Amino acid sequence: MAIKEVVEHPAKVLSEKCKEVTEINEEIITLLDDLYDTMVEHDGVGIAAPQINVPLRVAIVELGEERDVLEMINPTVIETSGAEVDIEGCLSFPNLFGEVERPTYVKIEACDREGRVYELEAGGFDARAILHEIDHLDGILFDSKLIRVVTEDELAQMYGEEE
Ligand SMILES: [Zn+2]
Fold this sequence. Notes:
Blueprint (H helix, E strand, L loop, with lengths): L25 H16 L4 E3 L9 E6 L4 E14 L2 E7 L2 E10 L2 E7 L5 E7 H14 L8 E4 L2 H8 L4
This protein binds zinc ion (ZN).
Keywords: Hydrolase, Iron, Metal-binding, Protein biosynthesis
Family: Belongs to the polypeptide deformylase family.
EC number: 3.5.1.88
């Protein structure tokens, strides 16, 4: 387990389609653990393998108020519905925040670290976070979906200044 350096935009690894994981071995388990350590260190709610320079279809997100960690290996989107505009950020764009339209519901299929295939349904911000991370695995970055950039002053006003 280790905290890795986060790759920042622009970088080739961030804009490429990542490869499927063919075998869940020690390397993949270590990757999942490194992703978690790196996400926590940088105070993110999700991170994808290309963001630590590994072009494989692996990503994690924290879900709900409990911030349960969801590990996704080879995730695929089965279904989406709805649409909502909300503010997003990304660890690979340290100073960029903005409004992005995403579905309000998503159903995915993915593999966990034991190699079990699972299905998961999520809504609201959880759906947004999952879709943001799966986009990373296809080399799609949130800046390409930005409807409007939100300044740091606006963010501070929206969420209040934390003392
Ligand atoms: Zn991101």
